[in-house]
Design goal:
The structure holds two protein chains of two kinds.
Chain A: E1 3-12, E2 15-25, E3 30-34, H1 41-48, E4 56-61, E5 64-65, H2 71-75, E6 78-81, H3 93-98, H4 112-124, H5 140-152, E7 158-162, H6 170-185, E8 189-193, H7 197-203, E9 206-211, E10 214-220, H8 221-224, H9 227-234, E11 237-240, E12 245-248
Helix pairs in contact in A: 4-5
Chain B: H1 3-23, H2 34-38, H3 44-77, H4 89-103, E1 107-108, E2 111-112, H5 113-133, E3 134-135, E4 138-139, H6 141-165, H7 168-178, H8 187-206, H9 208-216, H10 218-222, H11 228-250, H12 256-268, H13 272-296, H14 305-323, H15 325-329
Antiparallel strand pairs in B: 1-2, 3-4
Helix pairs in contact in B: 1-13, 3-8, 3-9, 3-11, 3-12, 3-13, 4-5, 4-6, 4-7, 4-11, 5-6, 5-11, 6-7, 8-11, 8-13, 12-13, 13-14
Classes of the chains: A alpha/beta, B mainly alpha.
């Protein structure tokens, strides 16, 4: 298993936001992490991405505790896509994607291999048309795809995404999840935080539900996204159809 | 970054600096005969090589360093309006130097007291301003700039106060710290100054790709294998060192770190591999031009160069502030 979490927790001050999380995440599987606001989804992802080294318990990637990984080596294997990226300076979309090659480079200039990886990542995410554009001038959804391209340019073995479809239109939501599923088939491990249970139902192989900082359900998508779980965790009346969920308050 | 684009940008900037640095010593209130100056004849030789040239060289070092410091602070704070003067660091540094004059200290642990105090003043101000502006590892740009303005006023008021209680000769020495100016200094001193700031600038340039990441975000840098905490500490130390060593010689000169990097971003983009070296070259050219104006516009008397840069930089700052107001109030 790529990620092995045992008793993982994190507190801000005295308030625990995550406690006693036991889970494993392997390659080739698309896992959706869902739960109500404040359930600790982003915190869990942040711990796995190596951004919250102050966690308690044990969170290992490939048998080594995350905070003991050398940062560059970790970044060559695990890529993280943040929820939103606000940039103050006029970097072009291409420069933003090229930043994903940082853990591979030495010296001031990129190597030819970096160029290829960037072109491939931008082609995969349908962002080649934005190459020379100022990142700040792109729409929210276009930015999100460019940020995904930057993560893919890291040629990762594991991809962590924090609500990647927030700003995407319907068409790009679907192509985003299709792409993630495709990447999984190629052997990548993908964990994505999402609020969209319908997309999870269609594309995720596994769903992990968090509630108030604890794992409340974890397993194959169809076993987890049940009427009972929806009522219990989200407090809505859900009706599960073949491949979609309808909710009522 | 395409190496060809990089070298083009460097070549253009270097050409501009060369023209300015060669031309500026030839301009001045006294008419000099260049044949006599080359032949070593007095006073033409002294005016050219011991009055004008050292001054141009100090302006070169100071302008270049202040512009690089601006780039550096803007990257690590992710704030396009940050630079030594708007953060209050220049004034804090000047206050440090003025205190040593008032206490009559000349050396601290073997190094000239004004240098050491200017560096300590810069570092202390930076710590204070950041302590005010940081909230849960995030900088509020609004608080940051207001803190800078406040520290600026406090430092300037303290300098004015010390100026009033100082003896006549001290008061004369303090005056130049109220508004920055470039003076002719000995070549030996220029060499020491260059030996301090040029290696720091070289290190800053060498980490350019890391500043790119940090300018986007700390988590962004972190998830690409760059240790942002170490880089931030390094940036703050380098910034204080550069501001302190320049301010020790020139007093607070404002807005170079704002005008030059901003113009360069419009010309060449945001990549720090171009931004850092070109800021040095064109910041140097910019201050040489300002200083040439300062010493010729009211000749034979002089205007402090800080007055010129503030008159240009103040309105520019307001324009920048207005153009980013939306994000400031968000």
């Amino acid at each position: 298993m790529s990620f092995q979490l045992k008793g993982v927790g994190l507190s801000y001050g005295t308030a625990p936001v995550l406690a006693d999380v036991d889970a494993t995440f392997g390659a080739g599987c698309l896992t959706a992490v869902a739960g109500p606001n404040g359930a600790g989804k982003s915190t869990l992802l942040g711990i796995m991405a190596g951004l919250r080294p102050e966690y308690v318990g044990s969170c290992e990637y490939r048998g080594r505790e995350i905070r003991r990984w050398q940062k560059r080596a970790f970044a060559r294997s695990v890529a993280f896509v943040p929820q939103a990226l606000h940039v103050e300076f006029p970097f072009t979309a291409e420069q933003v994607v090229m930043m994903g090659r940082t853990p591979f480079g030495n010296g001031l200039f990129e190597a030819p291999g970096d160029r290829e990886a960037v072109d491939r990542a931008m082609a995969t995410t349908d962002t080649l048309v934005f190459t020379g554009r100022d990142f700040r001038s792109l729409s929210g959804g276009e930015r999100q795809r460019v940020v995904l391209a930057s993560a893919l340019a890291q040629s990762p073995e594991f991809l962590l995404l924090d609500e990647p479809t927030t700003f995407l239109d319907l068409k790009h939501q679907i192509s985003m999840y299709r792409l993630l599923r495709e990447l999984c088939r190629e052997g990548l491990g993908v964990v994505t935080v999402t609020h969209d249970l319908n997309l999870a139902l269609t594309y995720a192989g596994r769903v992990l539900l968090l509630d108030r900082g604890r794992v409340s359900a974890d397993g194959a998508t169809a076993d987890v996204l049940t009427q009972a779980n929806m009522n219990r965790i989200f407090g809505v009346h859900a009706t599960i159809h073949d491949s979609w969920i309808a909710y009522e308050p | 970054m395409n190496p060809k684009r990089f070298w083009t940008a460097i070549a253009i900037s270097a050409a501009v600096l060369t023209v300015v640095a060669v031309g500026a010593p030839l301009i001045g209130s006294a008419r000099i005969d260049y044949a006599r100056a080359w032949a070593g004849l007095s006073p033409d030789n002294e005016i050219l090589f011991y009055v004008r040239l050292p001054r141009v060289l100090l302006a070169l070092l100071a302008g270049g360093t202040l512009a690089v410091t601006g780039v550096l602070f803007q990257a690590i704070l992710r704030e396009p309006l940050a630079e030594p003067f708007t953060l209050g660091i220049s004034s804090g540094s000047a206050l440090g130097a003025v205190l040593t004059i008032c206490f009559g200290w000349t050396t601290i642990a073997g190094i000239p007291a004004t240098w050491a105090a200017a560096f300590l003043g810069a570092a202390t101000t930076l710590v204070v301003v950041l302590a005010i502006a940081f909230e849960r590892r995030r900088v509020s740009s609004f608080t940051l700039l207001l803190a800078g303005v406040s520290i600026n006023s406090i430092a300037m008021a303290t300098i004015l106060f010390l100026h009033n209680v100082a003896t006549f000769s001290q008061s004369f020495a303090i005056t130049r710290w109220l508004m920055g100016g470039i003076d002719a200094v000995e070549y030996r001193v220029l060499a020491v100054l260059a030996a301090i700031v040029l290696p720091v600038i070289a290190v800053v340039f060498w980490r350019s790709r890391d500043w790119n990441l940090l300018a986007v975000g700390e988590e962004w840098a972190s998830s690409r294998g760059v240790s942002s905490t170490r880089l931030l500490v390094m940036g703050y130390v380098a910034g204080s060192l550069m501001t302190g060593s320049i301010t020790a010689f020139t007093g607070p000169i404002g807005f170079i770190g704002l005008i030059v990097p901003h113009g360069l971003r419009i010309l060449f983009g945001a990549d720090h591999r171009v931004l850092v070296p070109c800021s040095f070259l064109l910041g140097a050219a910019f201050l040489i031009v300002c200083d040439t104006v300062a010493r010729t516009v009211l000749s034979p008397t002089e205007v402090p160069v800080g007055v010129i840069t503030a008159m240009l930089g103040g309105p520019f700052f307001i324009w920048l502030l207005r153009s980013k107001r939306r994000s400031l109030w968000l």
